[in-house]
Amino acid sequence: MNEHNHFKFSPATWIIPTFLLVVVWFVFYINNSFNLHLNDHGILPRTFSGLQGVIFSPFLHGDLKHIASNSLPLLILTTALIYFYREVSLKVLVYGIVLSGIITWTIGRESYHIGASSLIYVLVSFIFFKGMITQYYRLMALSLAVVVLYGGMIWYVFPEVDKTISWEGHLAGLLTGFVFAVRFKTPDYVKDIQYPWEKPDFNPEEDPFMKHFDENGNFVNTPEPEENTDYFTADQNVNYSYKE
C-alpha cells in the first residue's frame, strides 16, 4: 500500500483521542465533586464484582496528580495509534482495555486497580513492537520516538520500584500490546521512491556506478569514455562564405 494512501490525517485522528480524554476528566470531575465513590468500581482481582473494573478502571483516577500524569501520554499515544495504524486502532483500544483488565484481575493484588496507565502501556508496547516487526522506516522511527519519550516506563512493571502503583496493570498492558503487535495484521507499506538497485530487473554489470567496483567490492578506477570528436580537429580548415 502506498504510504500516501495510508498515512492520511482525518478528523478521527484528533476527535477520538480528545473525546476519550474528555470522558476521563468528566468522570474524575463528577466523582470528586459529588463524592460518588466511583473508584470502588475499579478492578478488584479474583472477585466477581471486581470484573466490572475491566471496563471502568481506565476512566477512574485517584487524585489530580494521577489523572494529570496519564492525560498527555494517553492523548499523544492514541493520536499516533489512529494516524499510523488506523485499520487496527479500534481493536487495539477496545480489546486492549479488556485483555489488560482481565490479566490485571487475574494477577493483581487484593486492592482496587484504577487508572488509564494500563491502556497507556498497551499503546506504548504495541506501537514499539509493531514498528520493529514491520521494518518500515516511518514506523520504526515512531518506535524509536516512543522509546525516547516513554522508555523509562519499563521500570514500573516491577513491584520493587513503587508498591503504591498498579505494577500488575502496567505489566498486563505491556504483555497485551506485544501480543497485539504480533497478531494484528497491518498493510504492506511501499515507498514512493524506488531506487535502481531495488528494481527486479536491476543488473549491476550494466550500472555505471557499479562498474567502478570489481567482484570483491574493491574500487576500480575505470577510465571515462572518450569524448566524441566527430565535429572537427584543430588541424582541419574551416571555410566560411559570407553574403553581402
Walkthrough of the structure:
It contains 8 helices and no strands. Helix 2 (11-33) packs antiparallel against helix 4 (64-84) and helix 5 crosses helix 8. The chain has helices spanning 3-6, 11-33, 53-56, 64-84, 89-107, 117-134, 137-150, 167-183. The chain is mostly helical and 244 residues long.
Mean pLDDT: 87
Q: Which ranges are low-confidence, i.e. pLDDT below 50, for 5 or more consecutive residues?
A: none
Q: Report the span from N to C terminus.
A: 69 Å
Structural class: mainly alpha
Task: Write a concise synopsis of the structure shown.
This protein is an all-alpha fold.
Characteristic key phrases:
mainly alpha, elongated, 8 helices
Helix and strand arrangement:
Elements: H1 3-6, H2 11-33, H3 53-56, H4 64-84, H5 89-107, H6 117-134, H7 137-150, H8 167-183
Helix pairs in contact: 2-4, 4-6, 5-6, 5-8, 6-7, 6-8
